[in-house]
């Protein structure tokens, strides 16, 4: 019995030693990830670019890695922007926290509140980097309290796409550059009727960002205190007359049977694109970032217009969408330096031109338009220049700066819920009111508990 | 007198011998159990306590417990229409899932116990869905019901449905989730029921044949009552699995449309990892635990499980 | 007459079998077709090829995903075999203080769902630095109360004569375990091992929240990653990856089905 006892202790001890060693070694692997043995510093880069855009990004990464010998950027796709910030928040301070992360415009408030990143302004000041080469409308969206917190990378805005070939085929007039709601309705209804239902006039994905853009275009806010830009937002304004106008317009198109509803989520986005490319749907509103995919896959002529606005008003402009790059705190100096160098590389006119040509996000560097390849492409297909035109023609005010608060996930979910109900015929005011009340509850709850983190100087 | 003394002496001697044996047994037993106990303590008991603890706090965006709210989280979730909707939806799903799985399983078992040659091939085929992972199954069913390329959507359109995209409709999405889940669970349910069917003595059926009972009547009046302990056991097991269901929601509906399929396990994940409401999510986790613990207790107590009696 | 009756019965069985396995059959069929044909609804196309599988193996990290799944499920299975056997031995062959209470403790863990403990477990694993790591994916599952019960049941069925014989031979505890108990319960152990491997090969929620890179992501979460990384639903390749994920489990089941049929009902709950 006693020898068994000793053997038992030996086995258990061995197990513990093995586990401990395993823990020790794997732990080491992660904290020493900075040096992968080739003398280069590895920088982990979490991004949300999927599909063909991922290819373009990886090409840029390879270009940067080859162009110098100090740093290796390791790109990792972490899912949608929603998933990405969730993972980032969950791993702050852990061994998997990335060195560089792409986070979208909507989640800026939360990112700053997490207090896990170094403001890019610090590096800008140190190197006297010339920020004026970037569009002021873009940097304005990413500055907080006058300082640039993150480097804008992929910028987009909402635009309207329509199938010019189908329009021609069924004798529908092209949409003007800045269409009104009735312009779009007329085209959608005509398209549906004349094609005898083979083509559905338009669709608008149930995606919370799109209504935000529609109200920005009407100089209306999503949350109070100047969209959260003047002081911490305390209430949402989702039931504004402007939002109601937009929703009523969509419901109107649905009632006239000229609308296709694809639902919500990434499956919906894919199905919507597939339907547009299969020429089963004629008009849809989406990020200008889709331009790249359409360029590659559309076997017909397509047109691009500004985000629509209600009749009798002037288009105010829309908020910048897309994402920016953030450098994580508490990382070795070499790692942060590498991240900064990569950022600068991505901001050069050449990189930005490559990026726009490959993806459809517009170049944020004003000099990119002078790069030969991009200039030629724009000449050939003027649609590529529409997002930048929309940016330049828009006003710079709180509405076009975009909403800045940390409950944007809940707000978008609530708006999407309202859209689902409205698409099914529910009363617009009631649905929006519900969305607003639910969002206010979420905002109040968060502010109560995290107010000290979020109430920073703007 | 002397006999008594003798007996007492022997009794005390053997008592002390027994005590000695037990003491000698404690140490090795401890070592045999220690690794398992360590893991269970770290990853089951400790988290359970922490979840209860977390449920009494509201957490901030960094995931830190910031404000003590006592039972506040519990009060608010039971007043939150979204949570109540989630709970109701979960109940509907779980009952539908368990019931349909059992009925379908019984039908399959009945078919697979017919006296035919090569019946074992069919038995293997019927168990074929066992072990399909939720992820792979979800992809297969997503494909079936995809509005553009799904055969099921084609079929529905051909039958005259205007909106053949079931996944955009709250009831339709629930139907697809139930179907996918039943399909996944059928293999296992079938195997259990098959073995139960085979344990019914054939004499009963022979007598019924003589009495002229139809197959259907025999199944209903002989088999089902005789395997009712297994039926009950399977029903409770499927209920428990139903409450834990997560992967199909994550892959097929994302909780929608309109939160129609935002069932409990998925809501907990959402509240915890998307909205960073660890406090609320912990309270919801406790609710889930209570439900499952209750169901498991019923399973242990009322089913003929000789396993658990020492 | 019986021939016609039998014939119609075989037909019924076949129809039911095909209907039941239809999603898998459809998936296999679609994985052999080019995405173009699927997108156009042309399911009767004759362009059958293994192209999609080739594409899946070459352009996606599915091989790495499979390796990850294999390693994690394997480590967990080994861990559980060792730890559960040890604990089951203690409950079956040793009388010790607090035996009833400890037994009850194990019982209780089976009533507490893992899904309700993910938040603290995530934080524990994060604090240990085990995120995105085999350690975080396997160590929390190195034991299972269900396994302990199942194996205890198997050990209790060892005839008392055999136990006495072991004592007579002067076998120590571990020797008895290794030389008599384990071989005698071989069938149950194999069933348990297959079941554990399968369960953890199919695990989804925990790997979803604890893996962040392709290096450690197992194949079930890999499916989701591939689905979200693709924007145009390359249906042919998507189906191929789903079938690649399914095949090992289907194969394992075919091999292990006789064990399952025999032992599942006797052993207890699904756990």
Automatic annotation (TrEMBL), chain A:
One cellular component term from this protein's GO annotations in UniProt: cell envelope
Cellular localisation: Cell envelope
Pfam annotation, one family: SBP_bac_8
BP-aspect Gene Ontology terms: transmembrane transport
Keywords from the named record: Periplasm, Signal, Transport
Major location (coarse): other
Cited SUPFAM superfamilies: Periplasmic binding protein-like II
Similarity comment: Belongs to the bacterial solute-binding protein 1 family.
Name by which UniProt lists this protein: Glycerol-3-phosphate ABC transporter, glycerol-3-phosphate-binding protein
Automatic annotation (TrEMBL), chain B:
One of the record's GO cellular component terms: plasma membrane
Domain ABC transmembrane type-1: 87-299
Membrane topology of the entry: Multi-pass membrane protein
CDD domains assigned to the protein according to its UniProt record, in alphabetical order: TM_PBP2
Major subcellular site: membrane
Protein name as catalogued: Glycerol-3-phosphate ABC transporter permease
Cell compartment(s), UniProt: Cell membrane
Domain of life: Bacteria
PANTHER family: ABC TRANSPORTER PERMEASE PROTEIN (PTHR30193), INNER MEMBRANE ABC TRANSPORTER PERMEASE PROTEIN YCJO (PTHR30193:SF37)
GO biological process terms, semicolon-separated: transmembrane transport
Keywords, comma-separated and alphabetical: Cell membrane, Membrane, Transmembrane, Transmembrane helix, Transport
Transmembrane feature ranges: 29-49, 91-112, 124-144, 175-197, 222-240
Automatic annotation (TrEMBL), chain C:
CDD domains: TM_PBP2 (cd06261)
Organism: Lacticaseibacillus paracasei NRIC 0644
UniProt xrefs under PANTHER family: ABC TRANSPORTER PERMEASE PROTEIN MG189-RELATED-RELATED, SN-GLYCEROL-3-PHOSPHATE TRANSPORT SYSTEM PERMEASE PROTEIN UGPE
InterPro entries referenced in this protein's UniProt entry, alphabetically: MetI-like, MetI-like_sf
Chain ranges passing through the membrane: 12-32, 62-90, 102-122, 134-155, 176-198, 232-255
Cellular localisation: Cell membrane
Xref: Gene3D superfamilies: MetI-like
Name of the protein this chain belongs to: Glycerol-3-phosphate ABC transporter permease
Transport recorded as keyword: yes
Alphabetical GO biological process terms: transmembrane transport
Membrane topology: Multi-pass membrane protein
Keyword line: Cell membrane, Membrane, Transmembrane, Transmembrane helix, Transport
Family, per entry: Belongs to the binding-protein-dependent transport system permease family.
GO cellular component: plasma membrane
Keyword Kinase listed: no
Primary localization class, coarse: membrane
Domain ABC transmembrane type-1: from-to ranges: 66-256
């Amino acid at each position: 019995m006693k020898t068994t006892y000793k053997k038992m202790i030996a086995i258990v001890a061995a197990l513990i030693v093995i586990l401990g060693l395993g823990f020790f070694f794997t732990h080491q692997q992660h904290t020493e990830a900075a040096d992968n043995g080739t003398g280069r510093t590895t920088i982990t880069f979490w991004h949300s670019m999927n599909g063909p855009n991922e290819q373009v990004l990886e090409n840029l990464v390879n270009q940067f890695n080859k162009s110098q010998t100090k740093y290796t950027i390791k790109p990792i796709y972490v899912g949608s922007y929603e998933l990405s910030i969730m993972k980032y928040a969950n791993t702050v301070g852990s061994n998997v926290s990335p060195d560089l992360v792409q986070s979208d415009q909507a989640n800026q408030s939360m990112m700053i509140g997490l207090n896990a990143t170094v403001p890019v302004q610090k590096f800008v000041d140190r190197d006297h980097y010339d920020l004026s080469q970037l569009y002021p409308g873009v940097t304005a969206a990413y500055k907080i309290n006058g300082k640039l917190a993150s480097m804008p990378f992929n910028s987009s805005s909402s635009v309207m796409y329509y199938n010019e070939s189908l329009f021609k085929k069924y004798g529908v007039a092209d949409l003007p550059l800045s269409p009104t709601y009735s312009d779009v309705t007329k085209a959608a209804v005509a398209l549906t009727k004349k094609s005898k239902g083979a083509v559905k006039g338009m669709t608008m994905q149930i995606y919370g960002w799109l209504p935000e853009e529609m109200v920005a275009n009407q100089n209306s806010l999503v949350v109070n205190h100047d969209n959260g830009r003047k002081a911490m937002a305390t209430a949402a304004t989702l039931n504004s007359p402007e939002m109601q106008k937009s929703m009523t317009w969509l419901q109107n198109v649905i009632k006239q049977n000229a609308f296709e509803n694809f639902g919500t989520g990434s499956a919906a986005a894919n199905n919507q694109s597939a339907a547009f490319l299969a020429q089963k749907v004629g008009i849809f509103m989406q990020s200008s970032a889709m331009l790249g995919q359409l360029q590659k896959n559309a076997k017909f002529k397509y047109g691009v217009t500004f985000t629509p606005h209600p009749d009798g008003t002037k288009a105010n402009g829309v908020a910048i969408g897309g994402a920016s790059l953030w450098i994580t705190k508490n990382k070795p100096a070499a790692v942060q330096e590498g991240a900064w160098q990569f950022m600068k590389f991505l901001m050069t006119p050449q990189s930005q031109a490559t990026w726009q040509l490959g993806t459809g996000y517009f170049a944020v560097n004003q000099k990119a338009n002078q790069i030969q390849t991009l200039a030629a492409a724009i000449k050939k297909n003027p649609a590529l220049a529409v997002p930048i035109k929309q940016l330049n023609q828009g006003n710079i005010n709180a509405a076009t700066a975009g909403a800045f608060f940390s409950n944007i996930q809940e707000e978008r979910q609530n708006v999407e819920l309202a859209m689902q109900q409205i698409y099914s015929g529910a009363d617009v005011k009631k649905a929006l009111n519900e969305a607003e009340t639910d969002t206010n509850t979420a905002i109040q709850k968060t502010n109560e508990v995290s107010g000290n983190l979020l109430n920073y100087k703007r | 007198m002397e006999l008594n003394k003798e007996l007492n002496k022997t009794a005390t001697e053997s008592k002390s011998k027994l005590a000695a044996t037990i003491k000698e047994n404690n140490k090795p037993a401890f070592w045999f159990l220690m690794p398992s106990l360590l893991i269970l303590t770290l990853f089951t008991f400790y988290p359970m306590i922490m979840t209860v603890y977390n449920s009494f706090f509201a957490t901030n965006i960094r995931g830190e417990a910031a404000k003590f709210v006592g039972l506040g989280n519990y009060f608010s979730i039971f007043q939150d229409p979204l949570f109540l909707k989630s709970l109701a939806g979960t109940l509907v799903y779980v009952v539908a899932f368990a019931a349909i799985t059992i009925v379908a399983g019984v039908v399959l078992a009945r078919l697979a116990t017919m006296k035919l040659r090569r019946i074992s091939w069919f038995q293997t085929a019927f168990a074929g869905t066992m072990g399909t992972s939720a992820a792979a199954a979800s992809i297969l069913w997503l494909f079936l019901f995809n509005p553009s390329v799904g055969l099921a959507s084609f079929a529905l359109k051909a039958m005259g449905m205007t909106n053949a995209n079931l996944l955009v409709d709250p009831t339709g999405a629930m139907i697809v989730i139930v179907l996918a889940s039943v399909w996944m669970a059928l293999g296992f349910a079938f195997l259990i029921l098959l073995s139960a069917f085979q344990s019914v003595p054939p004499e009963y059926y022979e007598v019924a044949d003589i009495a002229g009972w139809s197959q259907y009547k025999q199944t209903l009046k002989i088999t089902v009552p005789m395997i009712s302990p297994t039926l009950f056991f399977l029903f409770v097991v499927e209920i428990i699995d139903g409450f834990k269901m997560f992967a199909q929601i994550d892959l097929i509906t994302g909780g929608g449309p309109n939160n129609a399929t935002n069932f409990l396990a998925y809501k907990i994940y959402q509240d915890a990892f998307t909205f960073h409401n660890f406090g609320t999510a912990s309270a919801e986790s406790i609710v889930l635990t209570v439900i499952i613990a209750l169901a498991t207790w019923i399973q242990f107590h009322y089913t003929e499980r000789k396993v658990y009696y020492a | 007459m019986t021939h016609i009756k039998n014939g119609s019965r075989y037909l019924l069985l076949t129809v039911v079998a095909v209907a039941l396995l239809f999603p898998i059959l459809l998936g296999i069929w679609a994985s052999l077709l080019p995405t173009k044909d699927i997108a156009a609804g042309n399911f009767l196309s004759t362009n059958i090829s293994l192209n999609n599988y080739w594409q899946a193996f070459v352009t996606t990290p599915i091989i790495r995903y499979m390796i990850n799944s294999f390693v994690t499920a394997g480590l967990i299975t080994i861990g559980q075999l060792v730890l559960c056997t040890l604990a089951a031995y203690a409950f079956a062959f040793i009388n010790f203080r607090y035996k009833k209470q400890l037994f009850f403790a194990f019982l209780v863990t089976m009533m507490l769902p893992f899904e309700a403990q993910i938040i603290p477990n995530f934080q524990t694993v994060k604090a240990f630095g085990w995120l995105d790591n085999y350690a975080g994916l396997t160590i929390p599952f190195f034991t299972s109360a269900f396994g302990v019960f199942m194996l205890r049941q198997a050990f209790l069925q060892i005839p008392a004569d055999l136990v006495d014989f072991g004592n007579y031979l002067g076998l120590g505890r571990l020797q008895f375990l290794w030389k008599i108990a384990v071989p005698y319960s071989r069938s149950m152990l194999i069933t348990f091992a297959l079941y554990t491997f399968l369960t953890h090969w199919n695990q989804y929620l925990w790997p979803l929240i604890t893996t962040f890179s392709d290096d450690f992501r197992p194949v079930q979460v890999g499916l989701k990653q591939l689905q979200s990384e693709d924007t145009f639903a390359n249906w042919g390749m998507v189906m191929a990856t789903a079938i690649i994920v399914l095949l090992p489990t289907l194969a394992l089941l075919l091999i292990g089905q006789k064990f399952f049929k025999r032992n599942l009902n006797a052993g207890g709950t699904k756990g």
